[in-house]
Amino acid sequence: MHQRLESLRDACAGMDAVLLTGRVNISYLSGFTGTEGILLVTPEDAYLCVDSRYTTQARQETALTVREITRRWEDVYALIKDLGIRTLGLESNVMDFDTFEQVSKVCEGVEIMPVGPKLKNLRLIKDADEIERLKQASCVAEEALRVVLEKGIIGRREMDVALDIEWQMRSRGASAVSFELIVASGERSAMPHGVASDKVIPAHAPVVIDFGCIVDGYCSDQTITIATGRVGAEFEAAYARVFEAQQKAIAALAPGKAAMEVDGLARSYLNEHGLGAFFGHGLGHGVGREVHEPPSVSSRSDDILAEGMVITIEPGVYFPGKFGIRLEDCFVITDNACQALTNMAKGAIISFN
Q1: Residue 301 near residue 260, CB atoms below 8 Å
Q2: β-strand partners of 350
Q3: pTM to 2 decimal places
Q4: Three-state SS for 34?
Q5: Strands 329-333 and 350-351, how do they pair?
Q6: Is there a contact between 225 and 184 (Cβ–Cβ < 8 Å)?
Q7: Which residues of 178-203 are buried (b: 16+ CB within 10 A; e: fewer)?
Q8: With the CA atoms of 134, 139, 145 and 151 taken in that order, what torsion angle do they form, in degrees rounded to the nearest 10?
Q9: For residues 72 and 64, what is the distance between their CA atoms, to the nearest angstrom?
């Protein structure tokens, strides 16, 4: 935690203190997993302010100074005043406008500065412990999906399959799903964010399953496209192109590589085979304590890959009224290439009943 706090201090150098309200960054910097708290970080110390509901938990989970508060912003301001803080950075990318106005009003005489952009890359590089947690989350999700698929999905509603996957993940130690699971069959597979519906999954149809869970505070994210029988030559040809596009992007992953360039490799390949117009989203994104975080792997990204970044590579093509295909895996950038964190083979179309 010390190094993480130092990174925050470096990013916000020149300010007397930084005040954080977002649950994700508070947990990352302090170890506190409660749902509500305020973290005040100065160049010399860090104070976790919680109400009486969380005092015991906070003192068990963090080595930082824990302050119990009763009047949320008034008590925090009293601490700010006692410490002689004159310039205060706020987590502007998390704090809503009403709260910002309230803090600004209470903190009379304190210069408020937005530091959201400075915090964008705070969690960008993952350490060995974080990578292990991400691996574990992927393993839990994959084991859960395999159990559900082996039971069979034909004749089941998409939402029931999604609920079954979630239950299997939770029974293996997941605290939650990473996002609302996508189970989209037949024509609905052409919806990139086609969350599970009450549609019954038919035979001889493609099914896109985008799934992930949270284990020990870290997310997994993976997408497979499977078949429930014969799906036709057009689907098979498109699937092969999407897989090859993904492989070309994966082969390029390395420190120093521009994320935009990686996106371009997959996009160019699909363009060459007449599929580029059907690939409308970015190639990937960062994964960590949140399922979508920096860096961005897209045609508009200015991020440069570095060792320790964790990203998805997920090309997809979507034909409205017909079918869709997306293949997504998660990787950590290593010293000279990458290492996969997901393990489900996607080189051939997998069929399940």
Answers
A1: yes
A2: 226
A3: 0.95
A4: coil
A5: unpaired
A6: no
A7: bbebbbbbbbbbbebebbbeebebee
A8: -170
A9: 19
**DSSP count for the chain of H helices, then E strands:** 10, 20
With 0-12 / 13-18 / 19 or more C-beta atoms within 10 angstroms meaning exposed / middle / buried, residue 13 is exposed
Q: Of 3, 202, 244, 36, give the one whose Cα is nearest residue 122.
A: 3
In whole angstroms, give the CA distance from residue 302 to residue 318.
26
Q: Which amino acid is at 225?
A: T
pLDDT in tens, 232-272: 999 999 999 999 999 999 999 999 999 999 999 999 999 99
pLDDT digits (tens, 9 = 90+) for 138-179: 999 999 999 999 999 999 999 999 999 999 999 999 999 999
Q: Where residue 2 falls among pLDDT bands split at 50, 70, 90?
A: confident
How many angstroms separate the CA atoms of 247 and 269, rounded?
11
301 near 328, Cβ under 8 Å?
Answer: no
Reported as type and span, the H/E element at residue 201 is: none
